[in-house]
Amino acid sequence: MSKLSKAKRDKRKKQQPKRAFARLSDQQQVQNHAVLTNEEGQVVAAIGLQGRQWLLSIGGQTMGNADDPMPMLAMLKHLANVQGKEGRKVELQYSEGLGELIKIMAAEKELDADAYLDQLAAEFDNIDAEDAAEGEAAQGDADADAGTDAGETAAGGDAEAATEAPADADADDKPKA
Fold it and tell me: What's the mean pLDDT in 79-87?
């Protein structure tokens, strides 16, 4: 090897254009497949595909991921229904690819796509109804406990007064030194 080979090699390296290197942390782009928008056109929630994972984003933050988008889509449909009941106008749009997946899943259940989505969203309605019933029962129990506690306090206060009176009487009966 010649004495100049290192110098030649270094010169050649400097003259070559810089190579872009792949970062380990680079992630694949998220492809939106379902978008829930409000009346101003702002995105409220979305479902996207990143690689092989489906992502759920609400309010600009990723809330979860899954292998199957149907539960997330049902959640968005339920959210759209709830917003509609509250008088807010929201619109759920989904991609052709996701629409085809919905049709395939609906065909397995012998339903059309809209009925299938409504059925999935109805499961969330049932959960909300159960939670509301449990919340009312818990509130009723808390009210009943509060009433019982108040009654015990009143009775307990009288019982303490009655208990204290004989203790004071015993103290008076004892000779004082």
Answer: 89
